[in-house]
Q: What sequence folds into this?
């Protein structure tokens, strides 16, 4: 049986287009990768009645626990929560793919740069996938008899491109590959403590932060993600 990798699927989830689009794309990624990649969607975990700090903690734990991450960088201004999750992932050396389907320009980079703020660019172990959502949609619509068929074709094409980038970034060596195991675990212990707000206690779940960090690091090392 091939190794399964969990993907933290980060992005906006504030209206029906976000929610349904995220779910459909995640399903296509899982299907077309033959189960190699399993997406974890925050929208399937969060409850509208939860306290803000509980939602934040749940999402940060999701980032830390997953093997890789997919970040949706759409919009003329990036979703701030997604950017926080991206930076948390980079601090933990989690392989990441940035997906931008928005055909509008944005950010403060030159014409050959990324279409978002330069402070969210240039990080290692990160692949960018930028495509024109409108152009890809129109192509799928011309090739399909119904809107349902077009949606299937459209999401399958995007998912295939994402899988290619996930495979590529997963093969890149870890920045922590030469670090001693205890050094990596110290980094993870600090990452679980510094956000405060009860995050460390929640992930420890009655145990210790040291034990939680050890489980996370051991699991990633077993999959070749931390050297």
A:
């Amino acid at each position: 049986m091939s190794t399964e990798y969990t993907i933290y699927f980060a992005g906006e989830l504030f209206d029906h287009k976000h929610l349904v689009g995220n779910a459909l794309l995640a399903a296509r990624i899982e299907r077309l990768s033959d189960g190699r990649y399993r997406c974890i969607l925050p929208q399937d975990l969060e409850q509208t009645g939860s306290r803000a700090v509980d939602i934040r903690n749940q999402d940060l734990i999701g980032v830390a626990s997953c093997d890789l991450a997919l970040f949706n960088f759409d919009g003329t201004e990036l979703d701030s929560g997604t950017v926080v999750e991206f930076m948390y992932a980079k601090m933990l050396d989690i392989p990441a793919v940035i997906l931008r389907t928005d055909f509008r320009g944005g950010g403060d980079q030159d014409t050959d740069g990324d279409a978002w703020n330069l402070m969210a660019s240039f990080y290692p172990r990160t692949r960018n996938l930028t495509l024109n959502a409108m152009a890809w949609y129109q192509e799928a619509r011309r090739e399909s008899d119904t809107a349902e068929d077009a949606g299937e074709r459209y999401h399958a094409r995007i998912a295939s491109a994402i899988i290619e980038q996930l495979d590529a970034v997963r093969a890149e060596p870890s920045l922590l590959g030469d670090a001693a195991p205890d050094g990596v675990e110290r980094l993870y212990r600090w990452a679980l403590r510094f956000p405060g707000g009860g995050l460390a206690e929640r992930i420890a779940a009655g145990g210790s932060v040291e034990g939680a960090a050890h489980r996370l690091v051991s699991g990633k090392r077993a999959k070749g993600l931390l050297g």
